[in-house]
Amino acid sequence: MLFKLVADMTDLTVKKEPLDEAYYELGGRSLIAQYLIKNVVPTCDPLGEGNHLIFCTTVFAGTKLTTSNRMSVGGKSPLTGGIKESNVGGYAASLLAEQGIRLIIIKGISKTNDLWTLHVDSKGEAWFKEANDCKGMNNYEFSEQIHGKYGSKIATVSIGCAGERLYKNASIQVSEFRSGHPSRAAARGGLGAVMGSKGLKALVIEKPDERHQLKYQNENQFNEACKTLNDLVAKGVQNDPFHNIGTIATIEATGANGILPVDNFSGKLFPEYRKVGANQFMENLSSRGGKNKIPCQPGCMVRCSNSYHDEDGKYLTSGFEYETIALFGPNCHIADLDAIARMDRLCDDLGVDTIEAANTIAVCMETGKIPWGDSKAALDLLNEMLEGTDFGNLMGQGCEAVGNHLGCKRIPVVKHQSIAGYDPRNTKGTGITYATSPMGADHTAGLTMGRAFDDCGRTAQAYASNKLQVAMCFADSMMCLFAFTHMVPGIPLLANLMAGLYGGEADFNRIATMGVKTILTERAFNQQAGMTIKDDRLPDFFYREKSPATGAKFDIDDHELNVIFDF
Amino acid sequence: MITTYDVFVPMLMGGGASLRTGLKVRELGCQKVLVVYDQGIKEVGIAGKIEENIRNAGVETVCFEDVVPDPPDKMIEEAAEIAKREAIDGIVAVGGGSAMDSAKGINVLMNNPPPIVSYFGIQKNLKPGVPMIFIPTTSGTGSEVTNMAVVSATDLGKKDSVVSPVCLATLAIIDPELTLELPPKLTAITGIDALAHAVESLTGGHANPMSDALAREAIRSIHHWLPIAVENGGNYQAREALMMASTHAGMAFTNALVHLGHCIGHALGASFHIPHGTACAATLPEVIEYAAKTESMKVRMICECLQKVIPEQATTDEIGRIGRDALRSFIKSVGIPNLKQMGLTLEEAMSVAPRVTKDEGMALAPYRITPGKVAEMIASAYDA
Fold first, then answer.
1. Which of A383, B40, B66, B240 is most buried, with most CB under 10 Å away?
2. What pLDDT score was predicted for residue B2?
3. Would you call A462 an interface residue with chain B, using a CB distance cutoff of 8 Å?
4. pTM, entire model
5. Which residues of A are less than 8 Å from B206 in CB distance?
6. Where is the Fe-containing alcohol dehydrogenase-like C-terminal domain (chain B) (predicted)?
């Protein structure tokens, strides 16, 4: 039997109950979509008592499928005003799986100004603990304190001061396996603010004394398919730059072809991109005692994480990713990896989305508030968010709010959420994903780079985006997409996993339907929340301005966007 | 919009050009070539003439005369065995799409191990084969200028393509005289196949100004000359124009690629063994109506080529309807049957819709379409 925790902040009760039958074959993004459409009124105030904050594991959590212990966080987004699923690595989902817990529901809002942590202890008991002493405490200090108190066999899922202040760019930070650094972020869409609005500082999850045993309907069927799939990943990672270097390796590809964003999505090339590229990164790691190939969750074969040290060999940040580097780097005309690492650390610590924060900085540069390429000025602005100055508080409302305040004409957002580190004119399928994903501008919803004929051309881009968006929906329901990528030749076997664990036919339609149903449910939620087809468009400047790197504009016909989810 | 344009295959064109085959084979340095054709080409005497022409140039020939329509993988693999055993150093294909597709498949297997089905899709790293000369004997397929080999995978129960430079002819010899004997029905079917290539090239997402120009010229020419050639096969001027048109349409779709009409055509062909040209023509008018939603300028161009006037202020829906009706009336005028006349029930015809939307060729369609809408298009075309 699997369990769910239902916690109500209004009366500080938490109940451990059997998981609903209907949720067994759902996990991650698919579970969040189905839960929210049934339990949260789409027009509710995302920071009010009607919104629920959901933490859940995947369909295959607790199995031997590599990276299946990924956590999804869901709720109505205060940033987009629509449905939000933000998934994250780290240790928490593994421990929840060991606890036999698929789903944690946080309802209501604390009636007092008090702050709370929700503990799941080694006996499997769940209880609230008052945490007023942690008010204003940021993620690194919090995680160290909790790890100091409860030992290393725990995971934290916490917010920093940004979440407490209800910043719409606030993340929820999850501690990494082994190191305990709170560097894995459920970053997008401001779910940290939803957590803050409820008065919840953190989840603290202990390793159970007794590990929960999953009940397989046909364990052999599961194991056989699982082994084949894991073998595919093991083989695939050998030549995977994400494994051998890290996600920063993406810069080597995007920097050369105009996909890497430069100077607030100007569409230019950035001649110095290699200064923030793979070689510089690897050199800095080896000369300063940093490390790559770190798994963020137990059993991961991709191991894309890293530990990045400063010039003095002291730990600075981890989970230092392409998006952060591209957007704080070339997109702000900055070519200093150490400065970007300090920004990453600051964002993780106060708990904000690096994509949203970096786009906000770029908009500040675009409007002349600070000069292009000035990494010190950028860090100073980020510190304003930490300090909670007036402008810092405005920055916490996201890139669009700051852009509007400064009179910026080029604000790179879709559904009020900042665009990730890929110029949509030069990977048009990704642009289609940005425009049409119910999540808002989100590369993880379907990054089509290299999958259609010509990244700057129109042909087959909507087709690629549609296929990937569906696939990412079921990938985000079962595992980490970096491992999923290597499983593609064995995708039909996912049906055997489903049948082996839950019974029934090994029919791939069970998987594919999960993807389609999830997207349609999310769109229905967004429509009920008030979004229209006009929200499925990129900012005007991508249609008007040619990318100087390639001459391409975003020339996808509106009708093509309108019908992308006609199934 | 920025596009690329590829011209792959040099051509020798003109009445009697096939008489230079031997000279050209020798110029390419070949000493022993495989001549690929089907029994029909043998029976009308074209194959024998070309073989003799090659031998007179001092080049040995080996024949593979058993090409069948929709060339199956096994047949191609057998032919490749013969080619390797005989140590041929060139291939000459004489015939329609099947002969040329077979030759392409054989060439892929010259230096890449079988099975041919393992090379479906875009192949960038195949080992090169031998020089090839293609001599089309119909005005339809355009295969002489394309880099795709369409192969029927016997065990998989489907047709798919190998796309590779190894599928490209070294030279295409376009000799309209070879089509003078083509019977009216086959003239019409192959001509409409070329029309489908041109029309879909214009409306696909990969179109470019050069492919547009070639496709427009092909449509104009087919519209004018196909009825004449169907009426009087011996009209050389018509045959020459149609040969040019099919080659131009082939060049256009090599660049711009085809989409929904061919997906429907392939699904109908695979389910009911309808000839390719007829199957692609069945819903072509509805495909244009659908495309008008996003490609109305292109549908205007098509109508202009069909000498159909579209009012300046017409809406996209109106443009679509006018385009549909103009195409349908032309297709009917050359005697191409509709789905009902082909003997299908409405239910049978509509049943292919889910197969159509699963076809990877849908990647190239102007915009996404559901199986339900495809079924509606088939229903609209059924008895039209």
1. B240
2. 76
3. yes
4. 0.92
5. 453, 457-460
6. 187-382
